[in-house]
Amino acid sequence: xxxxxxxxxxxxxxxxxxxxxxGGIGRAIAARxxxxxxxxxxxxxxxxxxxDDGRFHPVTVDLADGxxxxxxxxxxTNIFGLVHAAGVMxxxxxxxxxxGEGDTMWRxxxxxxxxxxxxxxxxxxxxxxGRVVFVGSRVAHGMPGRAQYAxxxxxxxxxxxxxxxxxxxxxxxxxxxxxxxxxxxxxxxxARAASAPRVPPLxxxxxxxxxxxxxxxxxxxxxxxxxxxxxxxxxxxxxAF
Length: 241
Description:
By secondary structure, the protein is of the alpha/beta class. It has helices at residues 24-35, 66-74, 99-127, 147-167, 208-219; strands spanning 15-19, 39-44, 56-60, 81-84, 130-135, 172-179, 230-233. 34% of the residues lie in helices and 16% in strands. Strand 1 (15-19), helix 1 (24-35) and strand 2 (39-44) form a beta-alpha-beta unit.
């Protein structure tokens, strides 16, 4: 059975920025939005992987560089949606933390989100419509060995709820999608070898396409009343057994 909720054309012509669009969850989101006829601007420092679609516009940007991120956002006009999916994971327990890696995660996850939103959300408000989705994590509220990563992800929830309250009457929604472990290249990163992913009670890792479908729904007209929320997609991982 197909897991697709939205029909082709559901996002026709809407211009959406997707960060981390060259791989993993970000790529799955960009591909799904293109299938729904959106126009996607893919922000990534890696080479684009969706170049065969004329509605996909790759933008080379180092999201850890604040000035680059702001400039890339300012170069665009009439943006309807922002999906911040770019991310890295570095692990470490208290007493053996890598503060440089912690700073990198903060800059990519949180600082990039603030810079992109600060440029793009005001124009959404002016036009009276817009959508923002941050890709968070189920571990945002704490997990051994992932404190620095979790802190950056829970910060996205605070940003989303705060900003959602500022623009709720302006036709703009801001939400966080918080997935459990998904089958992406991030799982093969040697930098996270000390913290293996936990397979959800569902019995398998999440498919990035499942996460992309939820994100696409939040961008759609049907989700106009959903804002300031952290939506967990975890295959039962957040349940107490």
